[in-house]
Write a structure and sequence with these properties.
By secondary structure, the protein is an all-alpha fold. The chain has a domain of 33 residues. Helices cover 73% and strands 0% of the residues. It starts with a helix and ends with a helix.
């Protein structure tokens, strides 16, 4: 089976089971974004202590 055939069968399977709109929604979650996540993550997290991160996680839990 070629990659083209595999993609065609996989997409048809998703459409048959999820519908066209939800199949597209499924694929969109894997789109590449822009920017450098690793660099941005350091900007966000390097200024926080582990205790501050842990406190934020606890605060967000129901």
């Amino acid at each position: 089976m070629t990659l083209v055939e595999l993609n065609r069968i996989a997409f048809k399977t998703l459409i048959d089971n999820l519908g066209y709109v939800n199949a597209i929604r499924f694929f969109k979650q894997f789109e590449t974004g822009n920017g450098d996540y690793t660099q941005e993550r350091h900007q966000w997290l390097d200024s926080l202590s582990l205790d501050e991160i842990w406190a934020d996680i606890k605060q967000r839990q129901p």
